[in-house]
Design a protein that fits this description.
3 helices, mainly alpha, about 0% strand
């Protein structure tokens, strides 16, 4: 034990012994008769005992209440939570399947479009290589105006720093 624990235990033991000696001395030196003093001591002890029992019962009830708050949920609560979780997982799986199907269809459609464009470009390139000219509707020429020369801005006249 540490020095502090030893000191506390010694103080507690001394207090109990001192209280007992004081009670005995009080009974012996009391102005009442022995039977009255014993009856008073018995009443005092019964009151102390009742107080101790009440305190014990209150403490026990408080501990039981706290323990019941932290107890594991019942089997019915666990089963309900498990069923709810399974339903959510199943709904998520269905949604993922729908998204996967939709994505697959979109990718397939885009793949067909890309293939069509690639074939069209390949046909145009091979036609150009053979010397054929593209139809006039397929080619647009837009004139580009050359920009005018930039105008230099005048610097404000004023004090130089």
């Amino acid at each position: 034990m540490s020095k502090q624990n030893t000191s506390a235990a010694g103080f507690l033991l001394g207090s109990v012994v001192g209280a007992a000696i004081g009670a005995v001395a009080g009974m012996m030196l009391a102005p009442r008769s022995g039977s009255e003093s014993r009856a008073m001591a018995a009443d005092a002890m019964n009151d102390a005992w009742d107080t101790a029992v009440d305190t014990y019962e209150q403490g026990t009830k408080a501990v039981q209440d706290k323990v019941s708050e932290f107890r594991a949920p019942s089997a019915a609560d666990t089963a309900a939570a498990t069923d709810e979780l399974r339903a959510k997982v199943d709904a998520a799986r269905e949604r993922m399947e729908q998204l996967r199907t939709s994505l697959s269809e979109t990718v397939a459609a885009a793949s067909v479009q890309v293939q069509d464009v690639a074939n069209t470009v390949a046909d145009m390139v091979s036609a150009a290589a053979e010397g054929e000219t593209a139809e006039a509707e397929d080619v647009r020429v837009e004139p580009v105006d050359e920009p005018e020369e930039p105008v230099e801005e005048e610097k404000p006249k004023g004090k130089k720093k």
